[in-house]
Amino acid sequence: MADEPPDGFWTDVDADSYDSESDYRDAVLEQCKLYLGLVESNRNRRAVANSFFLGINTAAFVAIGVTWEARPSSGRAALAFPLLVLLAQCGAWAAALRSYRRRGEQHWSSVRHLEERLPARAAQWDDTRPADQRWRLTDIEQAIPTLFGLAYVGAFVAALIL
After folding, report:
1. Is the pLDDT of residue 72 over 70?
2. For residues 65 and 52, which has the higher predicted lDDT (pLDDT)?
3. Per-residue pLDDT tens over the stretch 79-95
4. At what angle do helices 21-67 and 80-115 cross, to 10 degrees?
5. What is the pTM of this model?
6. Is residue 69 within 8 Å of 160, Cβ to Cβ?
7. Which residues, 6 or more positions from 98, have their beta carbon under 8 angstroms from its beta carbon?
8. CA nearest 60: which of 157, 149, 125?
C-alpha cells in the first residue's frame, strides 16, 4: 500500500501470539468486519443527515417561493435574519459532511491496512483513471450546501433590489 498505517495501529500482538496462522487471520478478519460495520454505520448516519438538511432547505425554498409576492416593500432588511439562519445551517451541513467524510476515510484506511494481513482484498482500491478525470460522489455532495447558500444570498439580493 502507498500509505502506511498510523503509529500505534498495530499492537504487539502478532501471528506468533496465536495458536495458528489461521486463528490470527480469523482475528484480523473479525476486526475487518468490525470496521466495515463502522463504515456502514457512518454511511447511514451521513444519509440521514443529508436527508434532514435537504428537507430543511427544500422547505425553506418552498417558503421563499410562497411568500415571494407577498414580501413587504419596507423592512426588507428584516430578511437578513432568516438569511443568516439559513447560511448557518448550510455551514453546519457542510461541517457535518466534512466530519463524516474524514471518519469514513479513517475507517476505510483501517480496512485497507487490515486487508494487508488477509489472503485477499475485499475491494479493488486503485482507480486507474487520472485524478483530474475522477468525480467522487463525496466531492459533489460537499458542494451542495454551498450551492444552497449561494441561492439564498441570490434570493436575498433579488428581494432587496426588486
Report:
1. no
2. 52
3. 788 899 999 999 999 99
4. 160
5. 0.78
6. no
7. 142
8. 149
CA–CA gap between residue 25 and residue 70 (Å, rounded): 68
CA-based torsion, 129, 4, 42, 26: positive or negative: positive
Beta-carbon contacts of residue 36 (< 8 Å; ≥ 6 apart)? 111, 122
| The three cell numbers locating residue 108 | 476505510
Name the residue type at position 50: N
